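Final paragraph of the annual report: two paired records, presented back to back.
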Amino acid sequence: MYSNSYYILTAINIMNLTIVIFFAIFYLIGASLSFVSVYGHASPITFNPKPNQIINSNQLLPNDVTITFTESPEPRASSLKVMGPNNERVDNNDLKVLESSKSLSISLDKPKVIPGIYTVNWLVLSKADGHITKGSYVFSLAESQHSQSQSQTNNQPPMLRQSIPKILQLTMLS
């Protein structure tokens, strides 16, 4: 009923349809795998102190600034620098890789640390892919309550400074 050419064309159509379906399935599998998180470079994932953190008198200033990355950094080509409020370096320039091998740390020169805003600049060469990433973030050291009240008292005129204890003494007597 059908000619041989019809069967040949139908076989070719089925073969073409099979190829189209194969590539459609291949595309769908590839597209679904692209939603899996893959890091191409050493990106920071944790910070200590945290970005925009305000360290107040109730908290202890850490001895080190530490950043953990998604990939192991090459320490000879990486850097961490902590700059203080006066734009001077306040770390000890002693960069080290921690045991996890994905964390860089640098110790703070505590005598140089004063209340103010600090900037941490980092540059990392990834051992895994050889790419360089860099960035910066800030944290703040707030002035302690004791030093604030002392500086406010010292900024008052001498007459007022002398009269405050007398006023307090008089109010306690009454």
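The closing record of the year follows.
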Amino acid sequence: MKTPFLLALAPFLTTAHAAVIQNDATIGTHPAFPIDRAFTVTSAQYLVIEVTTSAPGQFTFQYWSIANSYGLFRVSQGTVFDAAFVNSTPAFVNNWANPGTGTLSLAGAQSEYLAYWDQSFGPPTLTATSADRFGWARVTNAGGKLIVTASATADSGGIIVGTLDQIPEPASTSLLTTSLTALCTRRNRSRRHPCNSPISPPERRTDFPVRSP
């Protein structure tokens, strides 16, 4: 019977999506800044990037807030977006002004994926860590206006662009591996010693031959 083993694994199997927020990004007015249209993320309150239309199908992004570090990256669906990606890939836009602006060209109804990184804590730095926020947004040219049609944010670790699959932090991965190893070891021992296992022992044979006196 595998039920006890699966029940023991259940907390680990369900935590992957627990820290992912769906539809967290938007493009619209900002309540705290005098911006007509801004790319913002609800869970990352200081990530504010102004979005203007410089020409038909030409959308310019310019950083606004500088309270903490963040960056926007042009990516494709399925990209593993984490600290390693941020630290090795030039940003489309970031709030360190290198570059501080970027232009996205999209024809009518065309979409593209953008990934965003937001520093969770500490002094502003361009070096991402697994404790930061990582997310993605699919932006679409809807009748000449840029809108967000889907998005998701992982509060740590990283995320697979276009999905809700969070990349666990290294510490979480180590803990999961250790826990799985312990559970497997315990189950193997139970197989060798049925009397100490919740698994029922094999039935005792009753068909032994009887020796004649």
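Helices lie at 3-14, 83-88, 170-192. This concludes the annual technical report; the extension proposal builds directly on these records.
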